[in-house]
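G., the chain you wanted modeled:
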Amino acid sequence: MDSGTIAWMLTASALVLFMTPGLAFFYGGLVRARNVISTIMYSFIAMAVVSIVWVLWGYSLAFGDGFGDGRFIGDFSRLGLNGIDVQTGADELMFVVFQMMFAIITPALITGAIVERFKFTTYLVFLVLWITLVYAPIAHWVWAGNGWIFDMGALDFAGGTVVHINAGAAALVAAIMVGKRKNAASEPHNVPYVVLGASILWFGWFGFNAGSGLVADGLAINAFLVTNTAAATAALTWGIISQIQTGRMSAIGVASGAVAGLVAITPASGYVGVMGAIAIGFGAGVLCYGAVLLRTRLKFDDALEVVAVHGVGGLWGALATGIFALAVINPAGADGLIAGNAEQMLKQLAAIGATLGYSLVATAIILKVLDVIPGLGLRVSENEEDQGLDLSSHGERGYVSDGAD
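Predicted structure as tokens:
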């Protein structure tokens, strides 16, 4: 932990935190005007709630030594960050900070599937339970040194399984259990917000991926480069498909394509070069665009396409890591399929299956319990939905015209 690495990791941590307000703008622009504050607040309040949960017990459950052999969950040895000395444990304290930012944005991603109808007070409780019971165990499996997926050798450099597949699976369950909006077909109210949010996400993602090596070195430079390459490729791919299909290149589409590319390169960013990044970005543009079209034919109301972009993008990214990984890029990793290591694909599939299965089941149980607890429940009333959640949940309006409305 030399001063240069400390400075870079503090910067990377701030960049990842900045992604959550970026997500708030991205999601906020996609909903109707009467729900913009509500949608932004889902992301903003996550920064408060998850930060507290993380330092009290979340980090300990995710990265503590673990109960028993420690393969499946951490323990309470780091409760309240107990035992981490500011001087002698500065490296671990830096890791606490960096990982906290990942924990903050992951449940915020889920909210795109349930906007305009989910009860805010229930969401606060959901945040606490989901980070504790879903995010922390999966983070331990994948990133803790004694986690079973880590020990198996599956590759996830910056969160393809822990963040994106996890959030995508939870979003699918939430969208189905919460049910459709009364008027699911609605036009985004502020496209500039969407593009601004995507731009902030793109910027912050450099900390997300290039910081995940935990040191300022050549691997961080490569991760930065491939992150940008994949995002650019996916944005262009989505835009060209849109142009071919509709005769117009949608700004929302290009922004969504960029995010899809960023999602897909996340697990691979420490293991592939620029040619692999181009392939991953192209695949993300095609597959996520197709997933959006497919979702419109299905009956669940994933309002902001979380499953299509983060779920499908995360799945493709995790698989693509097993295809394009090169040990010459990162000796701590392994070669993938194109370098002759077919076994890596089996490890990636195992990680994907475990993450999907656990997140789907655990999220469903959490939501079911919250739905039957008196005073909670998942949905606002029909009157509140008609009025808009800005007024009904927060007593504020996103926009006021001449003070008269």
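Residues 3-392 form a domain with the Ammonium transporter fold fold (CATH 1.10.3430.10).

Shout if anything looks off.
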